C-alpha cells in the first residue's frame, strides 16, 4: 500500500490550489470531490435515485446533476442531507479506495474536504491541513460559487471548526493571502513537504 497523505481544509481554503502544486511533482491526486462527481455522472444509477427522490428540479436540461439546486435543498434540511449522505458516501468511499490501491507512486495525495468529519484520518499516514480564517473562507467561497452567504455559512457550520481541524494536522499550510501574493510561498512549502513525504514514504 502506498503512503497516503490526506489533504483537508474548510470550504474556500484553497485545497485545489495546493493539490495542483503537488501534481506538478507528478504526485497522484485522488480528489473526493471529483470522485463524488464520477459516481453521479449523467445516466448513473445513483443520479437516477437522487432524481427520483428530489424530483427533476435537481437535473440540468441535458440530464446532469444541478449541484447548486441540490445544495440548496440539502442544506435546508438535516433529514435530506442525511438521506443523500447515506446514499453517496458508501459509493464514494469504495471508488476512492479502489483508486488509492491502484497507484504505485511513493505517495498519493488524498484530497478530502470532510476527512475529519467522516473519520478518515485513521486511513492516512499523514494529515496536511490548509488553514484559513473563517472570514476569508466565507468571502472566497461566496465569490467562487456565486452562492449566498447563508448557504456558505451552513456549509461551514457542517464542517468541524478551525481549532478541531488543526488539532488533527501533522502539517499545516496557511493560505490567508490572495493567491497572487502567496503563490511563491505556497510553492516553496509544497516543495519542502514533497521532499519530506518522499522520505517518510520510504519508511512504510
TrEMBL record:
Belongs to the CoaE family. GO terms for biological process: coenzyme A biosynthetic process. Its EC number is 2.7.1.24. Gene3D superfamilies: P-loop containing nucleotide triphosphate hydrolases. It is an enzyme of class 2 (transferase). PANTHER family: BIFUNCTIONAL COENZYME A SYNTHASE-RELATED, DEPHOSPHO-COA KINASE-RELATED. Pathway: Cofactor biosynthesis; coenzyme A biosynthesis; CoA from (R)-pantothenate: step 5/5. ATP binds at residues 12-17. Keywords: ATP-binding, Coenzyme A biosynthesis, Cytoplasm, Kinase, Nucleotide-binding, Transferase. This is Dephospho-CoA kinase. NCBIfam families: dephospho-CoA kinase. It is found in: Cytoplasm. InterPro entries: Depp_CoAkinase, P-loop_NTPase. Signal peptide: none annotated. Catalyzes the phosphorylation of the 3'-hydroxyl group of dephosphocoenzyme A to form coenzyme A. It comes from Ursidibacter maritimus.
Amino acid at each position: 500500500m502506498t503512503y497516503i497523505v490526506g489533504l483537508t481544509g474548510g470550504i474556500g481554503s484553497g485545497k485545489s490550489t495546493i493539490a495542483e502544486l503537488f501534481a506538478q511533482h507528478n504526485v497522484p491526486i485522488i480528489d473526493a470531490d471529483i470522485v463524488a462527481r464520477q459516481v453521479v455522472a449523467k445516466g448513473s444509477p445513483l443520479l437516477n435515485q437522487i432524481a427520483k427522490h428530489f424530483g427533476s428540479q435537481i437535473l440540468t436540461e441535458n440530464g446532469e446533476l444541478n449541484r447548486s439546486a441540490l445544495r440548496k435543498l440539502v442544506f435546508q434540511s438535516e433529514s435530506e442531507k442525511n438521506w443523500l449522505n447515506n446514499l453517496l458516501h458508501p459509493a464514494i468511499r469504495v471508488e476512492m479506495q479502489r483508486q488509492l490501491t491502484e497507484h504505485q507512486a511513493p505517495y498519493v495525495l488524498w484530497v478530502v474536504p470532510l476527512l475529519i468529519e467522516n473519520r478518515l484520518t485513521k486511513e492516512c499516514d499523514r494529515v496536511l491541513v490548509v488553514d484559513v480564517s473563517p472570514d476569508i473562507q466565507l468571502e472566497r467561497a461566496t465569490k467562487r460559487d456565486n452562492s449566498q452567504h447563508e448557504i456558505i455559512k451552513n456549509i461551514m457550520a457542517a464542517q468541524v471548526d478551525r481549532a478541531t481541524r488543526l488539532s488533527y494536522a501533522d502539517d499545516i499550510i496557511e493560505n490567508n493571502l490572495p493567491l497572487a501574493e502567496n503563490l511563491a510561498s505556497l510553492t516553496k512549502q509544497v516543495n519542502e513537504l514533497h521532499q519530506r513525504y518522499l522520505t517518510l514514504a520510504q519508511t512504510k
